[in-house]
Write a structure and sequence with these properties.
about 300 residues, alpha/beta, 5-stranded mixed β-sheet, 12 strands, about 35% helix
Length: about 300
C-alpha cells in the first residue's frame, strides 16, 4: 500500500490524483467545486473523485483544502465566505461515510497552503532542507511552516498565515478579513489590481500590470514594488523569528518577474541581520501539483511509509 489518493480542494476546482511514495503521480482528474452550495455538495464532489481512484494499493486519502484546518480532527475551524457554511465541516468523516471506508482508515486533511508547503519540502524547491517557510501569493497571501518535526500549524492552527501580519504601508487598507493594516491588503493580487486602478483609472489584470512594469510603466512598477516591499519586510520578520533553511515563494503573483522579485529580495535582505541576510529566497517549482504531493505526503507520514 504505497499509493495515496491526493485531493486539492479549491474554491473553483477540485483536483485529485494517485501519488506514489516514490514521488510518481498519475492522471489528474478534476471537477468544479460547488463551494456556494454548502459542505454536503462539496463533500459529494470530493468523494466522487476519490472513488474513481481507490484501489487495493491505496494507503489513505489526503486532502488539501481552503480554510484553517485542525489536522487532528480534520475539521475546518475558520474560513472565508467563498465556501458556504464551511466552518465546522469534518472532511474525513464526510469522505469516509460517502465511500464506505472504515472508521480508522487514513484520511488526512491539511490547509491548502500547508499542503503546498509539504509538497515543495518533499519534492520541490525545499527538497533536502531540514526546514522551510512557504509563502503563497495569489488572490490571498498564505504561508506554511515546515520544521524538522514536520508541518507546524500552531496552537490555534493559524501558524504561517503571513497574510494577516500587520505590515508597514498597509495601515489604512482593509484586509478581506475585515481588519486594517494586514499584509494581504497590500500584497495580494486583488490589492495590486485595485491600487493600479486607483492611480490610473484603468482596470487591468495582475499579469498585465506586471508586464507593464517590466516594459517601463512607472505606475505599474511602483504598485508592484510597493506590494513586493511589504511582503519582503513581512518575510524578514518571519525569517528572524523562525530561522528556516530557506523561503519558497509560489502563487500567481510570484510569476511577476524582476519587477516583483527585485524589491521583495531587497526589502527582505535589508531588514535581516547579517547572519541570515543571505537566506535563499526560492521560486516554488512544483506548480499547481504541489498541493497534491503535499496531501499525499501527509498520508505517507501518517502511515509511516518511507518516501524518497
Amino acid at each position: 500500500m504505497t499509493v495515496a489518493v491526493a485531493v486539492d480542494l479549491g474554491g473553483s476546482k477540485t483536483a485529485a490524483a494517485r501519488v506514489s511514495a516514490d514521488g510518481g503521480i498519475g492522471e489528474v482528474i478534476a471537477a468544479p467545486t460547488p463551494a456556494g452550495d454548502g459542505p454536503e455538495a462539496v463533500l459529494d464532489t470530493v468523494a466522487g473523485l476519490v472513488g474513481r481512484l481507490l484501489a487495493d494499493d491505496v494507503a489513505g486519502v489526503g486532502i488539501g483544502t481552503a480554510g484553517v484546518v485542525d489536522p487532528e480532527t480534520a475539521t475546518i475551524v475558520s474560513a472565508t465566505d467563498v465556501f458556504a457554511r464551511w466552518v465546522g465541516t469534518n472532511l474525513a468523516d464526510g469522505v469516509r461515510a460517502r465511500l464506505g471506508l472504515a472508521a480508522g482508515s487514513i484520511v488526512e486533511v491539511r490547509n491548502d497552503v500547508d499542503a503546498h508547503a509539504l509538497g515543495e519540502a518533499w519534492l520541490g524547491a525545499g527538497r533536502g532542507r531540514d526546514s522551510m517557510l512557504m509563502v503563497a501569493v495569489g488572490t490571498g497571501v498564505g504561508g506554511g511552516i515546515v520544521l524538522p518535526g514536520g508541518l507546524w500549524t500552531g496552537a490555534h492552527r493559524l501558524a504561517g498565515e503571513i497574510g494577516h501580519m500587520p505590515t508597514p504601508g498597509a495601515e489604512a487598507l482593509r484586509c478581506p478579513c475585515g481588519r486594517l493594516g494586514h499584509l494581504e491588503a497590500i500584497a495580494a493580487g486583488p490589492a495590486i489590481e485595485r491600487r493600479y486602478a486607483e492611480l490610473t483609472g484603468e482596470a487591468a489584470p495582475g499579469p498585465e500590470i506586471a508586464a507593464r512594469a517590466e516594459a517601463g510603466d512607472a505606475t505599474a512598477a511602483g504598485v508592484i514594488g510597493a506590494a513586493a516591499t511589504g511582503l519582503g519586510t513581512a518575510i524578514a520578520g518571519m525569517v528572524t523569528l523562525l530561522d528556516p533553511a530557506c523561503v519558497v515563494l509560489g502563487g500567481g503573483v510570484a510569476q511577476a518577474g524582476p519587477a516583483w522579485w527585485g524589491p521583495l529580495t531587497a526589502a527582505c535582505r535589508a531588514a535581516l541581520v547579517d547572519l541570515v541576510s543571505g537566506i535563499d529566497l526560492l521560486p516554488a517549482s512544483l506548480g499547481p501539483r504541489a498541493a497534491l504531493f503535499g496531501a499525499a505526503k501527509a498520508v505517507f507520514d501518517a502511515a509511516a511509509i518511507p518516501t524518497d
